[in-house]
Design a protein that fits this description.
By secondary structure, the chain is of the alpha+beta class. Helices cover about 25% and strands about 35% of the residues. The protein starts with 10 loop residues before the first strand and ends with a helix. This is DUF951 domain-containing protein.
Length: about 80
């Protein structure tokens, strides 16, 4: 099974929604532990990398892809 690719600043969807009701989280710190921030209520949670990778459903918006689009538009 292929490992999911994620980076700092990405918006990800987790398997279980946050108690506030939203399912989108932003990655704000990476290391052995990963800190994610709820997009809805701005609450942040620090979880071990293995648990994060297990509970990650998919990457919704990649910061690198958004930066690439911005540079392409700015170059015109």
């Amino acid at each position: 099974m292929e490992r999911k690719q994620f980076e700092l600043g990405d918006i990800v969807q987790m398997k279980k929604p946050h108690p506030c009701g939203t399912n989108e989280m932003e990655i704000i710190r990476m290391g052995m532990d990963i800190r994610i921030k709820c997009v809805g209520c701005k609450h942040s949670v620090l979880i071990p990398r293995l648990k994060f990778e297990k509970n990650l459903k998919k990457v919704l918006r990649s910061k690198a892809a958004e930066a690439g689009e911005t540079q392409a538009e700015g170059g015109v």
